[in-house]
Description:
Largest sheet: 6 strands, mixed
CATH class of the largest domain: Alpha Beta
Number of domains: 2
Distance between the termini: 44 Å
Order of helices and strands: EEEHEEEHHHEHEHEEHHEEEEEEEEEE
Radius of gyration: 24 Å
CATH superfamily of the largest domain: P-loop containing nucleotide triphosphate hydrolases
Structural class: alpha+beta
Helix content: 10-25%
CATH topology of the largest domain: Rossmann fold
Shape: elongated
Bound molecules: adenosine-5'-diphosphate
CATH architecture of the largest domain: 3-Layer(aba) Sandwich
Amino acid sequence: MPHGAPLELTGVTVTYGPYDAVRDLDLRANAGEVLCVLGPSGCGKSTLLRAVAGLEPSRTGTIRLDDRQLDGLRPDQRDVGLMFQDHALFPHRTVADNVAFGPRMRGLDRRSVADRVDDALRLVDLTDLAGRRITELSGGEQQRVALARAVAPRPKLLMLDEPLGSLDRALQARLLDDLTRVFSELGTTVLHVTHDQQEALAVADRVAVMRAGRVEQLGSPDELWRGPRTAFVARFLGLEHVVRLTVRDGVADSPWGPLAVPGTRDGDHDVVLLPEALRVIDAGEPRRDDELAVTGRIVGRRFAGDHLRVTVDPGTGPTLTVPVWRGSVPEPGSDLELALDPQAARILEPETTTRSTR
Ligand code: ADP
């Protein structure tokens, strides 16, 4: 299998009528990197992939793959593979026939086509089903055929549009494992689009969080999780505690008491509490001097598999939700004591304006 090539988008704008679905976007994926584009529905993720694939023209900017400019080239000249959201398989043809489509379109001889089909089916563990028709497969198997079809031509860039979108949770988890294995075996550059933050954080080397046609933040899963730049990114990653606080003389006047947030500037700021900012403490358990003690009434408990999410109302300010791992969880209506660590609070940048039409 070939190694991936770097992909570079510079100042790319894609327009539908008066509306910019992708706006002046800069993005670079390094050779062999898995780059996830993460964002809410309608933010322009699919449009971005379609522009790179050559299915949508860009109005401004350049798209380069391995120092080759793609703008103006037909989709089949671009050396990219695209796995569509709806699979777009030929339903009455066999698995092998579907996977052979790309290599055949490239004009390869029968022998080379057969080799590539074998390789791709082995990669997704579907060799035994090569002769089946698509209509005789489960949803998860169809998804794997779609993946095999996208990789069979051995593209320098593999792009996936919500590849797990239509599957149930258990299958999603299995296919997520398959995808990470396939990505690392292939070594190709991957542009993977999803609205699901867990999926993005699980597969990506780096994640580009997209909002209204632009990249709002780009970083490794760990960088994003530890340092979301804006309230939008923080909320989109699933960080629940974003509050607006006034900082004076380096101390934020929070509803739960004075918080010495690191790196702070005086003024009004959005502040996010990272998950490790809050922990449950037993009555009388010591806490650090700079931690705040917050006592609140339990107003909600939500089962989350290996832990419970317990929501506490401290009486002033917003409620706080913490994971509780221990066997005995206090009943709703009783009090819970928390320690709030200001070191795990982050000042966020002001929100930028969104949406534009020309
Ligand atoms: P995402 O993949 O993030 O859900 P899309 O790229 O599909 O977003 O769409 C971005 C925006 O462009 C949306 O507001 C959508 O309604 C609009 N859009 C997408 N395709 C078309 C089209 N063919 N014609 C007009 N508007 C479109």
